[in-house]
Amino acid sequence: MTATPKTTGFDAACHYRSQLADRIERVTRSLPGWPVHRIAGEIDDIRRAATEHGLATVARLAHVLEHRLGEAGGAVTALSFLEAMRDAVHIDTTGEDMSGLYLAALGQRFNG
After folding, report:
1. DSSP H helical segments within the chain, as ranges?
2. Is 46 in contact with 24 (CB distance < 8 Å)?
């Protein structure tokens, strides 16, 4: 019998990040067919998971997106937020909250 290889904390974190990125991608692909309350529920679950795993930037972006979904036209902005969240999953390695940079970039995109 072969022993199951042990994974390091880094390997486990990479695996989790990959799973979270896949989940964000699933929500992104489903946007056209889902009602806003379903999107909001998925974003809330992603926010909680990101918080639990120390992904502060992803959690903050998800939090802001949840609030934007409640505004008129909020669902239109979801795609840009989800793209930023997907990118941040792999960049958010220091534990620092870099959401300000992402939010500034999103603000430029929406407000020119």
Report:
1. 9-30, 36-52, 56-69, 74-91, 99-111
2. yes
Longest Cα–Cα distance of the chain, Å, equals: 61
**Does residue 24 register a pLDDT over 80?**
yes
What residue type is assigned to position 58 of the chain? V
Reference 59, options 99, 26, 30, 17; nearest CA is 99
pLDDT in tens, 69-99: 877 666 677 888 898 899 888 876 555 667 7
**Angle, in degrees to the nearest 10, between helices 56-69 and 36-52:** 160
Token pair 């896949």 is found at 22
**Euclidean distance between CA atoms 96 and 110, whole angstroms:** 25
The mean pLDDT value for 15-36 works out to: 91
Q: How far apart are CA 56 and CA 71, in angstroms?
A: 23
pTM for the model = 0.78
